[in-house]
Write a structure and sequence with these properties.
Immunoglobulin-like, 362 residues, alpha+beta, five-stranded mixed β-sheet, 2 domains, 37% strand, 21 strands
Length: 362
């Protein structure tokens, strides 16, 4: 019995030890669960929830973009193996996987069962309009040995829209003809052009504040497109409208040069247009008008006011222009040469006369 009791007691100890061992193993398993992912680096499908992250993302923001804008591309790379990868490259391309179309490369590494979120930026300046595949390639240098290598890329489309580009030119003519003097009437012409490949919505807004020397002629303002008005408080020409790609709006109006304007003087004038380069509904760019008569870009249009009472007409008949210094030198040289030749002839004549009077020379 004693033996039985000891044996039974010993059995209870064994059961207790086994229970402790099983509990320890269960706790260890709960603290460090085995990796059950397939041995591969890959991109989860959009929306798949990953441990420790909200979602697996392959997202471009925005997916429709105006030429010249930036696109933020967010990518999740997941290590579906229990082994550490070491350093490897993740590259972003547009259209095709080629060095010529590489947007950016980032280097990272992953522990077993780990994932990483990378952010890239694509500048669409100069990119042709239309859909463009954007492709991400994990381990683009192919340095990580994997179970399979054919699912390390993920592609999706971004659409690039042709952008409008707005230019403004401002010119004038003197209705009275001739030079521009106080009291003359000038006709200004402002051409607003969309020289880009994309249409611009009706948010274009032009403003041209007249200098005090130029007095607006009431009722003279007109526009070939859009809506134009004159603000008498700010003395400003106003216009708004939309322009399709390649279209133009022409504004014309007249001003009178104030009679008290000093002569001579220069009166600059320039219009400014507010426009929306990315067509998101907000005008966040401004451009000045340009005077096409000069080589300088985006320069104001200048009216040269003069006193036209003194007229410089053509030369009076019978008069000659004054010679230049070079011409005076040539005239002087020719005169001296003629005088030297005449003096030589005179001396020779005197010598011959002397010989005739006194016989043959000795």
């Amino acid at each position: 019995m004693m033996v039985r009791r000891h044996a039974a007691k010993g059995g209870r100890h064994v059961v207790a030890l086994l229970a402790v061992l099983l509990l320890t193993m269960a706790l260890a398993a709960a603290a460090d669960p085995p990796c059950t992912k397939l041995p591969d680096l890959w991109f989860p499908a959009p929306g798949v929830i990953l441990s420790g992250a909200d979602v697996a993302v392959q997202v471009a923001d925005p997916i429709v973009v105006m030429q010249g804008n930036l696109v933020t591309v967010t990518v999740t790379v997941d290590n579906f193996t229990c082994g550490e990868t070491g350093l490897f490259d993740v590259s972003l391309y547009h259209d095709v996987l080629s060095p010529a179309t590489l947007i950016d490369t980032q280097t990272t590494s992953l522990l077993g069962c780990e994932h990483v979120v990378l952010v890239f930026v694509w500048d669409t300046t100069g990119v042709p309009p239309g859909p463009h595949p954007i492709c991400v390639w994990a381990d683009s240098g192919e340095v990580v040995g994997e179970y399979k290598e054919d699912d390390n890329t993920y592609c999706f489309d971004i659409t690039v829209i042709a952008a409008p580009v707005i230019e403004v030119e401002k010119t004038f003519v003197d209705v009275n003809g001739g030079c521009h003097e106080p009291g003359d009437t000038l006709e200004f012409r402002i051409a607003v052009r969309n020289v880009g490949d994309g249409d611009h919505a009706a948010t274009l807004a032009l403003r041209d504040e007249l200098p005090p020397e130029l007095l607006y002629v009431t009722g003279s303002l007109s526009a070939s497109a859009g809506a134009a008005a004159y603000d008498p408080v700010d003395r400003a020409i106003l216009w708004s409208g939309g322009l399709a790609a390649g279209a133009e709006a022409l504004l014309t109006f007249e001003v009178e040069i104030d009679g008290g304007t000093a002569t001579p003087s220069s009166v600059p004038n320039q219009a400014f247009v507010d426009w929306d380069p990315d067509q998101d509904g907000t005008n966040d760019a401004q451009g000045p008008s340009d005077d096409p008569a000069t080589a300088d870009p985006d320069d104001p249009t200048v009216v040269a006011v003069q006193d036209c009472s003194v007229v410089l007409g053509p030369p009076i008949p019978g008069t000659i222009d004054a010679p230049s210094l070079t011409e005076w030198g040539m005239i002087l040289s020719g005169t001296l040469l003629v005088l030297a030749f005449a003096l030589m002839l005179l001396r020779r004549r005197r010598l011959l006369a002397a010989m005739g009077a006194g016989g043959s020379p000795s």
